[in-house]
Amino acid sequence: MDTCCIKGCEKVAHVLGLCTKHWRRNKLYGSPVAMKSHSGLFRGMPAKDRFFRQLQKSEDGCWTWTSSVDRDGYGMFKGDVSGVIYRKAHRFSYAFHTGEIIPDGIMVLHSCDNPRCVNPDHLSLGTGTDNQRQKWARGRGKTLKGAELPHAILTEDQARAVLHDPRTYTQIAADYKIAPSTVGSIKQRVSWKHI
After folding, report:
1. In the predicted model, is pLDDT for residue 35 greater than 70?
2. Cβ distance 153 to 178 under 8 Å?
3. How far apart are CA 69 and CA 66, in angstroms?
4. For the domain that residue 60 is a member of, what is the CATH number?
């Protein structure tokens, strides 16, 4: 078990490297020795101040979000701009810096391809189609086929063998432990068209 990070305290650390007593003090007054800042320290602070405390400006021009991110890597932040509440840091940044309200169904696109970036100069509005178009134009999109697919059972060589095997679908399927309909899809060129 870790001990509290406060010098001289030997109690067990529970949160942010602090024991319960020091965590409570950190929550009320802040602490220069805590391993992370506590979200409670932002309570009552205007959205603008909270926003700028949670980013780091880098040499490449990105403003990297240093706080919580969602599973896709986008910064999580709740802030109000002109009566509209935004829950993503990049969306808040765009609305705050441009003064525009982001319409429903419109995305905020990154010119830098960095989901943590909240620099308004790197952000623009677009549709889902625009987002996909940018993705493919920048070489980030890839169509998976054959053995690259996550649910693929056969390898490229096995699929070729199935394609040229003269036996019945049922016999081939039993050898490869696949369904006879899968054999039919390969032979009729519905799946594995690239081989």
Report:
1. no
2. yes
3. 8
4. 3.90.75
